[in-house]
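Notes on consecutive records. When two proteins share a document, each keeps its own sequence and its own token line. Never mix them. Below: protein one.
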Amino acid sequence: MKNLLTRWNGLLAVVFILFLGMMQTALAADPLVDAAWVKANIGKPGVAFVDIQPTADYLRGHITGAVNTDFGKSGWREERADKVPEMLPEKLDKLTAHIGSLGIDNNTHVVLIAPGGSNLDMGWATRIYWTFKVLGHDNVSILNGGMNAWAKDKTNPIQTGMTKAEPKVFTVHLRKDLIATVEDVKAANAKGVLLVDSRPEDQFAGINRNPKATESGTLAGAKNLPSGWTTENGGGMFRSKALLEQLYKVAGVPTSGEQITFCNTGHLASIGWFVSSELMGNKKVKLYDGSMVEWTMTKAGPVEHKVKLQ
């Protein structure tokens, strides 16, 4: 009898583990969805379409039922006490309250809708996507091509005005393993972990720089894979995995192994992180939130110049 109970308890443990695995799989959404998927899921319970167009553009037309968040004004990033700009908030209560106001709780499938005009605005979506992952929410997707892809088909419904959602409670389960700090970058450099610069080549080389950075150049030893390469003609549609693999090879960036992506303020770097982690499947990639603006403002370490202009 004792042996039978032991076997039965073991069987229950296996079933429970399998159940948890199935639940985790169910909560991990595809990173990209297309317009056809969106059309088939409009109005379905548990799916929240979050439009990240500027509010004026959103009011003129958005996917039916989509709510609006302002990437620059709704608390997704903030200036740190030492004046380093556009960082993930240190205190997350206001951001989580905003997320709840969008009708999102921990069981909601969030679908992010960018304008889709360029890789730059798709970077708004990838940055918010990364933020949801950092907050412990895996059930998030991006509409590939954004509103541009949606509007191409004139039969797709478009709604005007403001849509409000019934507020919900969103709880944070912070995952710091996705965030690289200054100290992480220094340690990575010492260990030979690859640093990947997602900025345009002219900024990587030190020819031009972001006005918020205090010095031109890149992190020592970094390789350059511009975020503009990862979308078709620098637009809103991400390239296929097969094409991305070719571009990674050209850039000399492996598709596996420890890496840290960076840019100026963690915007373009979120595209690099998204493509490497979510589309290429490399789960050993972190995003350096402060990037070159923090590195140069705080004089964190040396900067490498490919070109020195007199």
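Protein two starts on the next line and is unrelated to protein one.
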Amino acid sequence: MTLVDRPATAPASSGGQAGLRLRGNLRQYGMIAALVVIVVLFEILTDGILLKPLNVTNLIMQNGYVLVLAIGMMLVIINREIDLSVGSVAAFVGAVTGVAIVNWGLPWPVVVLAALATGGLIGAFQGFWVAYARIPSFIVTLGGMLLFRGLSMVVLQGQSIAPFPTGFRQLGSGFVPEFGAGDLHLVTILLGLAGAALIVWNDWRSRARRREYGLSVPALRWFALKAVAIVVVIGAFTWVLAVYQGLPVVGLVVIVLTVGYSFVTTSTVMGRHIYAVGGNERAAALSGIATKKTKFLVFVNMGVLAALAGLMFAARLNAATPKAGTNFELDAIAAAFIGGASASGGVGSVVGAIVGGLVMGVMNNGMSLLGLGVDWQQAIKGGVLMLAVAFDVYNKNKAK
């Protein structure tokens, strides 16, 4: 067959384009559906305890640090790297923070800024060895995991340090302030409505942009159905929080990070570079992308988010303890893979990381409410992770 018979650049049929879109979005939407099913299942099994306002608030506070780490870990995995040190870095930053605030009496806002800067320096230290010395990230961060775990024990001398000032504790267990009095937390309601409107507007803008470039878009009725679903889900979620004490500060931090990093990864040059380097580093380098700098900055970012997670955990616990951060890295990696990341790099989204983290969090909370032992909880979570990876491999094989 000649090129005249079948041009190499022939556009795909509408059915083919629909199939490509379906395969591209299947995993992300599949995990959202799975999250809904898991929530409904545990809501039934726990006789309605799961979605009680108090339990939803506790769910957010208990998993906030995992969601923060999952965002950073998703970017690392998209970049085709791994970071095993985030739990130890979180513990070390928490330990230094405890000594600085409790023992030395330094102002906690200053210490928080210094702690975030320390996390960035740790990320830069590890990122240098990965990006410029070309040492595999598995080895570098495994060494970092041991190094900073040991340093956290040295700083704390094997003992916990407590308590923290009230202002610092708000980072882990506080709520967004309310203005006025009433049964409902109106600020939480307004934040929920604003968030839903922002998401719908962003989807509409993305749809309009695709149409300008001549790309296919879903039918208007499907867009409207999706918009209604978003408003209903977010409205119900904020209502549940508003009838208790409102949105936890931890939840606000996670929302801000999710919106910010979603914008960076989808609408900035840096975000496109992260995906390009993870998808094919050699091709990215040939196209003029500073691949080493990109990898370096991804690890710096991971260090800052690990420090933030350590601060949030210490604030919620109201103590700096040597055991902090244990298995944090495994929870973050699991959240990223369950949320759609690919081990081969170049695939994943920030929203997917949040969905994966929520799947893990709801499962942990639901199984605890049912009285399942830690042994069964670990086994079930391991099975879910293996299924998520198997689904990724299946999708790749279908695409070939």
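For the record: The longest helix spans residues 14-45.
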